[in-house]
Amino acid sequence: MDKRVVFAVAGSGKTSSIIDSLNINSKCLIVTYTDNNTRHLKNRVTKKLGIIPSGIRIYSYFTFLYSFCFKPICGCDITTKGINFNFPLPQYSQRAKKIVMNIILIIMTEFMLADLQNYSLSLMSYLA
In which element (H, E) is residue 48 found? Predict the structure, then answer.
């Protein structure tokens, strides 16, 4: 599978397109918004390949952010349930936190702009 990002409206065939392009040797990161869709994608991959290969990772949006952004910065010693900001980050993590927060802000802004643009296009076609 080549490097690509798939954005499309509901029912357009994103899942089928992604699943059809996977094979047992694929290396792929799939990030979806809901936990329900995460389970659905895992079931579809398992149905096609028999297992979820080690090269295919499927995460919900917030699990991805927690696993790849929050947890690496704050470390693995999280003893509370949920996120606790009562303790300052270690000094070496301060710069990394700013960089990751800027990346998250950019990603969230792009998603919001894409949603706004899709909404505007839908509204304009509805009004036309």
Answer: helix 35-49
